[in-house]
Specification:
Layout (H helix, E strand, L loop, with lengths): L4 E4 L17 E5 L9 E7 L13 H9 L3 E6 L9 H15 L1 H4 L1 E11 H12 L21 E5 L11 H8 L5 H6 L13 E6 L8 H13 L3 E6 L18 H8 L6
Helix pairs in contact: 2-4
Length: 267
C-alpha cells in the first residue's frame, strides 16, 4: 500500500506547533489503492497512550485497515503531555474539520467523517463527538466553515468518565492533578450524550485491568437511554491496548465486526 500523505494540522508559525518538529500535530492520510477517487467516507484515528504518548499500533494499522476496505484512513497526531486541555481537543477538532476541508484533494465526502479513539484517545474522540463546540480555538480558521462533529464514533477500550472508575493517569495528564469536580464532570463523556449524537461502536474486554469496562458500559447505557444508535462488543477476557489483536484468537474478530458496522459507508 502507498505511503501516507502528510498534512500539518496547524500552519507554519502557529503557537500550536511545538519546538520539536517530530511533535508537530499532523494528519497521516491513507487512501484506498487502485480505486476511483469518488467521494469516500473517512475515519480519523486517535491512538491511545494516557495523554502522554500516542501508541503506534493504534494508529497506522487501523488507517491502513480502513484504506484496504475502501475508506480513507487518517491518523491524528495530537499533542500530549506536557500539553493539557484544550490542546489535544483543539487538535482533534481541527483534524475533523481539516479532513472535511480536504474533500476535493483526496476524494473525501465531507458528510461522512467518523472519529475513532483508543483508551485516552477514545476519551478524546468521545469528547469531540459529544461536545464538538466545547472549545473553539482562536487559531482554527476552519471553525467558521466546517463542523467538528463526526457522523460516527468508534471507541476501543475507551476512557470515558473522569468521575466514575476513571483512569487516573489520563485525567491528570489532561487536566492536571488538581482538577476540580466541575471540570472532571465536564470531561466525563457519559454525562454529555444527547439525542442526535453520532452512532457509536464500542469494543472492550470485560476484565480490562487498566481502563474498567464500566467506561464503555456507561457510555452505551447513556446512548441507549435516549435512542442514540449503539453497537457494543464486550469480550470475555483480554489485556488493555490490544489494537488489532491479530495474535489473539479470542479477540481478533473485533476489527471485522467494525468493518461490518461501517459497511454502508463502503462503496
Amino acid at each position: 500500500m502507498q505511503d501516507a500523505h502528510i498534512v500539518p494540522l496547524w500552519p507554519d508559525g502557529s503557537p500550536h506547533n511545538p519546538t520539536d518538529p517530530a511533535e508537530r500535530p499532523r494528519l497521516d492520510v491513507y487512501l484506498p489503492e487502485g480505486r476511483a477517487r469518488a467521494p469516500r467516507a473517512a475515519v480519523v484515528v486517535c491512538p491511545g497512550g494516557g495523554y502522554t504518548h500516542r501508541a503506534p499500533h493504534e494508529g497506522e494499522p487501523f488507517a491502513r485497515l480502513f484504506a484496504e476496505a475502501g475508506l480513507v484512513g487518517v491518523v491524528c497526531h495530537y499533542r500530549v503531555h506536557p500539553h493539557r486541555f484544550p490542546a489535544p481537543y483543539a487538535d482533534a477538532a481541527r483534524a475533523v474539520r481539516t479532513v472535511r476541508s480536504l474533500g476535493e484533494t483526496y476524494g473525501i465526502d465531507p458528510g461522512r467523517v467518523a472519529i475513532m479513539g483508543f483508551s485516552a484517545g477514545g476519551h478524546l474522540a468521545a469528547t469531540v463527538a459529544t461536545q464538538p463546540d466545547l472549545h473553539c480555538d482562536p487559531e482554527d480558521d476552519l471553525a467558521t466553515r466546517w463542523s467538528a462533529r463526526p457522523e460516527r464514533l468508534i471507541l476501543g477500550y475507551p476512557v470515558i468518565s473522569m468521575v466514575h472508575e476513571y483512569h487516573q493517569g489520563s485525567a491528570e495528564h489532561l487536566l492536571g492533578p488538581d482538577a476540580d469536580e466541575a471540570t472532571r464532570r465536564q470531561m466525563s463523556n457519559e454525562l454529555h450524550v444527547r439525542a442526535g449524537n453520532p452512532p457509536v461502536f464500542l469494543f472492550h474486554t470485560a476484565d480490562d485491568p487498566s481502563v474498567p469496562c464500566s467506561n464503555s458500559l456507561r457510555y452505551a447505557e447513556a446512548c441507549m437511554r435516549i435512542g442514540v444508535p449503539v453497537e457494543l462488543h464486550v469480550y470475555r477476557s483480554g489485556p488493555h491496548g490490544v489494537g488489532l489483536a491479530g495474535d489473539m484468537p479470542s479477540l481478533r474478530s473485533w476489527p471485522g465486526l467494525l468493518i461490518d458496522w461501517l459497511r454502508d459507508w463502503i462503496d
